[in-house]
Amino acid sequence: MQGISDHCGVLLEVEWSEIGLATQVERLIPVYHKTDFLGLQTFLRDKFARWAGNGSCVEEIWKNVKEIIFESIAPFVPQTIMKKEVGS
Q: What residue segments make up the domains of the chain, in order of their start?
């Protein structure tokens, strides 16, 4: 009766068509709970005249609001980098 032994082994030969390296994709993630609320509030108050649009159409007011919000994220909302490994 043959038992398990380190004298008997299996050899496996594999050909790789290409070398696959895991690449990392980085994403910036806002850390909203660490927002500088007082600085953001002051910034938005200063930009209110641009928000209101002085009789502009709704689309233009909405465009201004979006620009102001995106402009405020960098200085007042800290961000962290999330790395995700992607296989090739």
A: 23-86
